[in-house]
Model the fold of this input.
Amino acid sequence: MIRNYNWVVAIVTVIFCCISQAQSEHSTQPEESLLIGRGDLLLISVFREPDLEQKLRVKDSGDIVLDLIGSINVAGKTPDEAAHFIEQAYIKGRFLNHPQVSVLVEEFATQSVSVLGQVGKPGPVSLTTPRSLLDVLSLAGGLTEIADRHITIRRGDKSGNIVAYLPNNADASVRASVMVYPGDTVLVPKVGLVYVLGDVARPGGYVMQDDAKLTVLQAVAMAAGANKTAKEDATRLIRKLNGVYQEQPIPLRDIELGKRQDMQLEQDDVLYVPFSMGKNVVLGASGIVSSTSSAAIYAAR
Done:
């Protein structure tokens, strides 16, 4: 009797281990990223039931109309999820006992992604399957030097927006984790710039760092410092407030000597270090701001 009991326990243990292993293998399978969209053309087939094979276009409502079953909503589902949903409908309607359904997306209604903003080639990018954000940006010519690393993905199925952050030193596997689907829109904004103009060694616009913080001393240092001929005591900061450019004096020399506290700059600020010659000191704010349009842009390396 004890031997029979031990034999039963052994059999149950083996069965339990097999079930656990199968569940573990199933859970480690990669999640399918392809989603069915409105207007997609689907091929629906049922194993050993050739009469039930259909090619159907997903309606604007997200529904398809199947023989026997009727209307079923499949938009936003993966092909596997849609197949399982259809199988349950066949069983619930008592049309088939053990259906094996296959769903294949034969044609996407929208086969492009719009990539807009600071990329090499803005515009539509052909896409027939989901691709990583990094791949899509590469197809669009890559990021420009003044591209912000906070990139918005606007989902084509109206499910919302995703903001992906791509730092310069990010590992490729991390940057590839965000997926872009056909019909999405990728928006790459312009990064914040601070302009240092006038009598400095390298006047131009300077890209703010990933944390979007830059002080007066940091900006002047990026411009390789003020020249010996500069009138540092007459340095001015030009900032746009409520649509109007306003000026304020900056005691640059005192800040460099540590007598005054360094000052935080904001996006699109213009720091002007005048020449010692009188005709340049009286240059107005409008003239200084207009010169930013032709200023060289320098990105941090």
Summary: Residues 22-31 have pLDDT under 50 and may be disordered.
